[in-house]
UniProtKB/TrEMBL annotation:
GO CC terms, sorted: pyruvate dehydrogenase complex
Protein name per UniProt: Dihydrolipoamide acetyltransferase component of pyruvate dehydrogenase complex
Requisite cofactors: (R)-lipoate
Keywords for the protein's UniProt record, in alphabetical order: Acyltransferase, Lipoyl, Transferase
EC number assigned by the record: 2.3.1.-
GO molecular function terms listed in the Swiss-Prot or TrEMBL record: acyltransferase activity
Organism: Caldilineaceae bacterium SB0661_bin_32
Family: Belongs to the 2-oxoacid dehydrogenase family.
CDD domains according to UniProt: lipoyl_domain
Length: 425
């Protein structure tokens, strides 16, 4: 008996996903767990996997359509059910009806508005696949990539149904492109110097999500900030020894060390592992630390779960895989959902100090700057130490200055005596 494949949960605030491309056609054999379609939302590209082995009997939606969680997208069953599938065979193209004869133009008086082009009305619930400039069809993600790379899609050969340009077609073209293959979309100003005062571009879905959430955070959450300095020499030395003893795929970054230290400190300060919701402080039982990752066009937060219980080797491995997927535009819903506390680390960007905006509905976020050699005074003697500044932004509805100062002190203790961070969970 045929089985319906539903749209899976995208895992965060997205209400729906847009079908970019079918990876399997009607009549193709599929295995359980094999990807059959690719969906896109504002944060992730999601591959939908077949729940069972069998034959793909029917596509219930088409590329460019958006569907909500749980909506049916395909049917999978046995090969002998294919002939009984209600999907009709493609019919010959019908001769289009001749357009109606245009009405003679009416005389325009000063009060008569200028005529405008008629607006096309799309059928309810159907979002067409967007055409490229020359009428070629392209999936939404292919169009987005073309905009991001200033690429003329007329140069790209489409491999999808009907010559549709897919994500892989754009990726292959960019990989093989010569310097002259990329064209600027924005025209250069004329030689006479008559240039526009500004050039605008539409915000990407990710940028719109960031704008909405950060505006919500600053408008509704009363932030306060506390900064502390931590000496990182012992942590950096232990990291160097650890990485020398393990292969490349087990290497630990400074951010992994900070993530582990924060997770252990949250055990002692559960009020910071919380959310303020409907006049209640909801303290989360799991400690899931998110790490902000710079991606093209914005920032995503990838999440390790039960971070306080996970060995630092597992944290490093999971973070590395999630960061690679995020930067490749293939983050999974589980990668970016479920964090209870966030770290924003700009240590790799030559940053002295900064304060981050809380990621709602969390109660706090920790901003980490660059660790640098600094002259310090220890017991009356001048010494050079590697010092890193960290700043907590906290929700004053949930916590207060003294609690956050003690939390930073605990994180500092763990980073300055780092052996515990490398010993198990």
């Amino acid at each position: 008996m045929a089985e319906i494949v539903p749209m899976p949960d995208l895992g965060f605030e997205a209400d729906e996903g847009e079908l970019s491309v079918w990876l399997k056609g009607v009549g193709d054999a599929v295995q359980a767990g094999e990807p059959i379609a690719e969906f896109e939302s504002d944060k992730v590209t999601l591959e939908v996997e077949s729940p069972v082995a069998g034959v793909l009997l029917e596509h219930l939606i088409q590329p460019g359509e958006s569907v909500a969680e749980g909506a049916p997208i395909a049917r999978i069953g046995e090969a002998d059910e294919l002939s009984a599938s209600p999907v009709p065979a493609p019919s010959p193209a019908k001769e289009p009806a001749p357009p109606p004869a245009p009405e003679p133009p009416k005389a325009r008086t000063p009060s008569t508005p200028l005529p405008t082009a008629p607006q096309e009305v799309e059928p309810a619930g159907r979002v067409p696949v967007a055409p490229a400039d020359n009428g070629l069809l392209a999936t939404p993600i292919a169009l987005r990539m073309a905009r991001e790379h200033n690429l003329d899609l007329r140069r790209v050969a489409g491999s999808g149904p009907g010559g549709r340009i897919l994500r892989g077609d754009v990726e292959n073209h960019l990989a093989e492109a010569r310097p002259g293959a990329i064209e600027e979309v924005v025209q250069l100003p004329p030689e006479d110097g008559d240039r526009p005062s500004s050039v605008g571009t539409a915000a990407s879905p990710l940028r719109r999500t960031i704008a909405r959430r950060m505006s919500q955070s600053k408008q509704t959450i009363p932030h306060f900030y506390i900064t502390s300095s931590v000496t990182m020499d012992d942590a950096l030395a232990l990291r160097r020894q650890y990485n020398e003893a393990f292969p490349a795929d087990a290497q630990v970054t400074v951010n992994d060390i900070v993530v582990k230290a924060v997770a252990l400190a949250l055990r002692d300060f559960p009020n910071l592992n919380a959310s303020y919701i409907d006049d209640r402080i909801e303290v989360h039982t799991d400690i899931n630390v998110g790490a902000a990752v710079a991606v093209e066009g914005g920032v995503l937060t990838v999440t390790t779960r039960q971070t306080d219980r996970s060995p630092i080797s597992d944290i490093a491995r999971e973070n590395r895989a999630m960061i690679e997927r995020a930067r490749a535009g293939r983050a999974r819903p589980d990668d970016v959902a479920g964090s209870t506390f966030t770290i924003s680390n700009l240590g790799g960007y030559d940053t002295d100090h900064f304060a981050a905006i809380i990621n709602p509905p969390q109660a706090a976020i920790l901003a980490v700057a660059t660790a640098r050699e600094t002259a310090v005074v220890e017991e009356g003697q001048l010494a050079v130490r590697t010092v890193m500044q960290m700043t907590i932004s906290a929700d004053h509805r949930v916590t207060d200055g003294a609690e956050c100062a003690l939390f930073l002190q605990r994180v500092k203790e763990l980073l300055e005596s780092p052996i515990r961070l490398f010993l198990g969970g």
